[in-house]
Amino acid sequence: MNRIGRLALVAGILAIALAVPIATAHLIFVYEAQATVKPVTPVVFQAGPDASAVSLTVTNSSNPQISLTIPVTNSSETYIYQALEVTVNAGSPYLYVDSCSYSGPALTSVELIVYPATAATTGSSPPSSPTGTITIKFPSTGCTPSGTVSLTAGNTYYIDFQVEPSLPIPNGASSGTLTIYFGLSNESEVTVPTPSP
Length: 197
Prior knowledge:
- There is one protein chain.
- By secondary structure, the protein is mainly beta.
- The chain is built from 1 helix and 11 strands; from the N terminus they run αβββββββββββ.
- A 6-stranded antiparallel β-sheet has the order 1-4-10-6-7-8, with no helix packed on it.
């Protein structure tokens, strides 16, 4: 066999040796999917229908905060309707007041009365069967909150404020500013299903 024949034979053997792994290789298919998911906040706080009466401001964050101007008069109590609205998108959290601050004429207490928006009343009386109440007491310094209210996913709630001043009020009437930081316990995460191929 001449030199050219040997080179052709070696080239043929190399071609066969390289072709065998290519023929036995596995094909891999890559599946790529894109999903657009609208983020959902489990609990959303917003100004209620009558929030403008008390200049309520709301901040939704890890510790939701509200601030409102409370009318304080020489009456035994002032009732503020539907100042705050709370929408529960997921889970069954417990709502409570984590901390608070107040400046203004002396108060005895403020009751936060929580009830479903579907049970909203009109007139001058609170709902007959609220979901629950949270009480804020005002000792000589600061404020002391107590109580929790159980909320349910899929519901919207109103929060009314019942203000009891420490009488008498100098000059008959004034206003104070109450700032509340809410807390939520047993708060569920929102799960998103995995897209199927």
